[in-house]
Amino acid sequence: MTVPHPRPLIVNRGVQGILNTLKDQAWQIAVGSGSTNPWFDNLTLENETGRVDATVSLATTVFENDTLLFEGTIVFVSEMSISEIGIFNVESTEYMLLRRVFSAIPLPATVSMPVRYRVHFKIG
Questions:
Q1: In what order do the strands lie in the sheet with 48-53?
Q2: How far apart are CA 33 and CA 24, in angstroms?
Q3: Tens digits of per-residue pLDDT, 67-78?
Q4: Rounded to whole angstroms, how far apart are CA atoms 97 and 112?
Q5: Residue 5 above 80 pLDDT?
Q6: Which of 16-25, 45-54, 68-77, 79-88 has the weakest average pLDDT?
Q7: pLDDT-derived band of residue 1, with 50, 70 and 90 as boundaries?
Q8: % the chain with pLDDT above 70
Q9: Contact between residue 19 and residue 66 where contact means Cβ atoms under 8 Å apart
Q10: Which residue, 86, 81, 83, is CA-closest to 109?
């Protein structure tokens, strides 16, 4: 007889521990001009146009320290539009945490663009 098991519940302190481990690693924020939908096995942006080392901190959305906050400033030297963002681990070029595609944002030549990306880990 097989006894059904409910899905395990990751508790708040467990999420905080995971996020603390991720926060202490070296990360980069990259932006690009790609437009294809993100997919589970993506390793890169479709068309990367800029990258910067990220400052990573913890923030509170629902419970204490449940959100990773990635911040950096990317400098562009020519006019372009960006439409995708990715967060990459510096230690492994094949470890992209996330990729998101959005409506194109036009940028003028020679601009410093602050980038801030929040990754909220939801329980349940």
A1: 48-53, 27-32, 80-89, 96-107
A2: 29
A3: 999 999 999 999
A4: 24
A5: no
A6: 16-25
A7: low
A8: 93
A9: yes
A10: 81
CB 88 within 8 A of CB 96: yes
Residue 83 in contact with residue 105, Cβ under 8 Å?
A: yes
Cα–Cα distance, 11 to 33 (Å, whole number): 38
Strand partners, 112: 75
Q: Say how far apart CA 29 and CA 35 lie, in whole Å.
A: 17
Secondary structure (3-state) at 76: strand
Query: Is the overall model pTM greater than 0.90, yes or no?
Result: no
Mean pLDDT along residues 77-93: 91
Burial 20-58 (b: 16+ CB within 10 A, else e): eebeeeebbbbbbbbeeeeeeebeebbebbbbbebebee
- Mark out the alpha helices in the chain (DSSP H runs): 12-23
